[in-house]
Design a protein that fits this description.
This protein is an alpha/beta fold. It is built from 16 helices and 22 strands.
Length: 507
């Protein structure tokens, strides 16, 4: 009997394949970055063909690195950057355009028009999402309106849509030769096209965006032994390994952090930050700028819902220090540089490069450094960048407590930025609650593996998964309440300075 489970983690900056054993321990991995295509200010694209080729390579190399055969894998799960939109020709697998990434803001006029025309409340009620550049439907509409011949192709059945989970799945299962065009409820819940109550594409929402239903993948539970087929035998693994789990990345991290009970929450620190609170089978509609979404659904069980606070730029701000400002050589250098000063020196950095997401939802905002004095140095900029990650998370935690009435006792964290001990200490200080990092910090891939393994009986149930979770480190708050409130008040003033910078049709 195969003893391992694999997970494709198709992220914003890279794709990796990880292999886990029955105890949830990492056995092997391989990871490759892909190109970030920036044609204009606010536009962010990826090459879908490059992503597919990277997926092939990392799967093959991870199996080889672990000294394994494909037959050693019981099953495979897929997790992915959500909302990033691919439209391709199912006859040959050729994309009609580059993937439009979730960070892209070219659809701001579409989002503004939806509000102006009175569709905003319908979208919020049915899809749980505000009209925003973040989500897939506006990107599909833009493609249909701007790529020559695409609408005609879509109406003829020669153009299909998927977020990157559906694109990878379709290619893994055969592509033009019988590939399965499917997605799961978590990815579908990020499109502005799925009704959260019916868990199906909604005709009224499709009409609002002018999107043919025939373009869309079928929707299935996140953990399902039947829906997603198997890898084709020719490539990449030369074996028909079943694919039995699909989850958007933040939902996968929620499963990987075993947040299976209402009131449990996790915060993932990656390119952006994503705080997810399990609300159980209850659909909680936010009044404070959060998203209502599907946390996960296991086959044969009702959907579990969540409130989510999505923050566009956190780890990406550290990358900006490295790649654009060039004040650090590696992302890890930000910690040492920031430690060389005791505080932010009175300055704040709001990295609203793509506008502000939760809880503000202001596409007119742009990044700003405020409170600068001649005294400030690169070290203060590095410190303010780490603080920006933490203050943005506090914005979301405060909104989440107002919506749910749940006060966090501890914040479970995961993702690459959690390797920065100073940032995690600042997070505990800013929130005033302990911050806990698990032994396996790569919970996104782990959650996809868990979903796939549950569907095949590799793991018995969620109670068994809970026994795998172990704390690696905990940070306790050290700031006084006075310092905490004073720092946060300064942050709120800084956020105000970023607003109304870009003129949109709405303002």
């Amino acid at each position: 009997m195969p003893e391992f489970v694999g997970a494709v983690d198709q992220g914003t900056t890279s794709t990796r394949f990880m292999i886990f054993d029955h105890a949830g321990n990492e056995v092997a991995r391989h990871q490759l970055e892909h190109s970030q295509i920036l044609p204009r200010s606010g536009w962010v694209e990826h090459d879908p063909v490059e992503i597919w080729e990277r997926t092939n390579t990392v799967m093959q190399n991870a199996v080889r690195a672990g000294g394994l055969q494909a037959s050693d894998l019981r099953t495979i799960g897929i997790t992915n950057q959500r909302e990033t939109t691919v439209v391709w020709d199912p006859r040959n697998g050729r994309p009609y355009y580059n993937a439009i990434v979730w960070q892209d803001t070219r659809t701001d006029k579409i989002a503004a028009a939806l509000e102006r025309e009175g569709h905003g409340d319908v979208i919020r009620h049915k899809a749980g999402l505000p009209p925003a550049t973040y989500f897939s439907a506006g990107k599909i509409k833009w493609l249909l309106e701007n790529v020559d011949g695409l609408r005609q192709a879509a109406e003829a059945g020669h153009a299909v849509f998927g977020n990157t989970d559906a694109w990878v799945l379709w290619n893994l299962t055969g592509g033009p030769n019988g590939g399965i065009h499917a997605t799961d409820v978590t990815n579908a819940s990020r499109t502005m096209l799925m009704n959260l109550e019916t868990l199906d594409w909604d005709d009224e929402l499709l009409d609002i965006f002018g999107i043919p239903r025939s373009m869309l993948p079928s929707i299935h539970p996140s953990s399902d032994a039947e829906a997603y087929g198997a890898c084709r035998t020719s490539r990449p693994l030369n074996a028909a390994v079943p694919i039995t789990g699909v989850l958007g990345d933040q939902h996968a991290a929620t499963v990987g952090q075993v947040c299976f009970a209402p009131g449990e929450a996790k915060n993932t620190y990656g390119t952006g930050n994503f705080l997810v609170l399990n609300t159980g089978n209850e659909l909680v509609r936010s009044r404070n700028g959060l998203l209502t979404t599907v946390a996960y659904q296991f086959a044969g069980s009702p959907a579990v819902y969540a409130l989510e606070g999505s923050i566009a730029v956190t780890g990406a701000a550290v990358q900006w220090l490295r790649d654009q400002l060039k004040i650090i050589s590696t992302a890890a250098d930000s910690e040492q540089l920031a430690r060389s000063v005791e505080d932010n020196g009175g300055m704040y950095f709001v990295p609203a490069f793509s506008g502000l997401f939760a809880p503000y939802w202001r596409s007119d905002a742009r990044g700003a450094m405020v409170g600068l004095a001649r005294y400030n140095t690169n070290a203060h900029i590095a410190r303010a960048t780490l603080e920006a990650i933490c203050y943005q998370s506090r914005d979301v935690v405060d909104a989440m407590e107002q919506d749910s009435g749940v006060h966090l006792d501890v914040l479970r964290v995961d993702g690459g930025v959690t390797a920065n001990d100073l940032c995690m200490q600042i997070q505990a200080d800013v929130l005033g609650v302990p911050v806990s990092r698990p032994v396996v910090a790569e919970t996104t891939a782990l959650g996809a593996a868990y979903a796939a393994g549950l569907a095949t009986g590799f793991w018995r149930d969620t109670d068994e998964l809970r026994t795998h979770w172990q704390e690696s480190r905990r940070w306790e708050p050290q700031w006084s309440e006075e310092r905490r409130q004073e720092g946060y008040a300064g942050w709120k003033r800084a956020v105000e300075r970023t607003l109304d910078w870009v003129r949109t049709e709405a303002g």
